[in-house]
Amino acid sequence: MTQRQTSTPSWTATGVARLYKRVGKKKISWIYKHPDGRSETLASIEPGSREEARKAEKAAIYKAAEIQQGRVVAGSVAEMIDRFRVEVDPTHYLDQSKHGKSSRESAYKNLTAFFGKMHPASMRPVHGYQYLDARAKSGAPARANKEMAQMSTVCNYAIRWGLIEINPFKDLMQNKYDSVVRTVERSQIVRFYLWSIKQQQAYRTMGCAAMFSYLTGFRAAEVRPFPKSGISDAGVFVVGAKRKMGEAPVHKLREWSPRLRCVVTRALQRSDKLESLVLFAATRRGLAYSKSGWSSTWQDAMRAWIKSADATYSEADNLVSHPLYFSLADVRPAAITRKMENRSADVYDFAAHANPATTHKHYDQRKVKRASATE
Fold it and tell me: Which pLDDT does position 229 carry in this prediction?
């Protein structure tokens, strides 16, 4: 039986928290009342059909459940994380690029899904280990380590805000995992470079960038957007792209060598023609490559190069597992290793790490540690 309409709208509870049915003269609505006083209409129909009313109420109940499951509860860890995301993230993290923000947003979402309904004071180290184990089982052990490090930073601010007394996730044992370390030989980089200068312009740019990174030891994030203003009479100059918030920037100068001049000159041939502000221009307007655009072009160049060097390679094969494949990020470790093999006195200035131990731990890929006899 259709509910009788009155001149004064009537409100009835639906059995779902904060969801009410409002019966008016012209419409029947299902309205959700948020904790902050806002009201939101989740479904609305004209009176007269029981079937339509049943469907509308069912849809409103589903929407209400979604709101309640995703809401940030006052005083919860979810609220703590959200406060950090809004108030602290924009100034705490140096990387405010689209990719950097997206990566952290993904971590906030994962952390909120796991810890969100807890009270901050109830968090214990065991909960951190449960998170690490759960993420490792889902196939993301390395990502879990980074996310827990991010959560630990959130907790440090929560102490300042008076929400917790100690950081429960400080000094947790991280997940162990087999990292893929790709060792790149100098010959691979040189061969790719020499092949590229005879190819179409996009591949030529990739080859010049690879050789430029090898000769300078600059990071991929420093090479891709390298400004032409960094070219001087003394050499090529760049401000280090990797540093923590508050740390002084690292200025890197690589003095000219015949090979470095040759690579830069080749890259400038197109850059000057486009009147670009960057050395490795992506478009006819002379703009720098985006990270995704660079990755796509690099993959295409690698695929074409490997196909020209290996007759057995086919498009169906896994590109990154091919022995000739390398990424731009693999070039810097190869360059630092070469400097170590040559026993260059300026190897630590070349690597430009704040701590020399980092150079040895992550960038020394020498297979044989050569030394002279004691006497």
Answer: 93
3-state secondary structure of 27: coil
Check: pTM over 0.85? Answer yes or no: no
DSSP string, 203-258: HHHHHHHHHHHHHH---HHHHTT-BGGGB-SSEEEEE-S---TTSPPPEEEEE--H
The sign of the dihedral angle between the CA atoms of 161, 166, 168, 172 is positive
Give tens-digit pLDDT for 109-145.
999 999 988 999 999 999 999 999 999 999 899 999 9
Sequence-distant (≥ 6) Cβ neighbours of residue 350 within 8 angstroms: 217, 335, 336, 339, 344
Q: Domain limits of the chain?
A: 10-70, 77-160, 186-363
Nearest to 337 by CA among 179, 193, 194, 185: 185
Given a contact cutoff of 8 angstroms between Cβ atoms, the answer to whether 229 and 278 are in contact is no
Looking at CATH, the fold of the domain delimited by 186-363 is given as: hpI Integrase; Chain A (1.10.443)
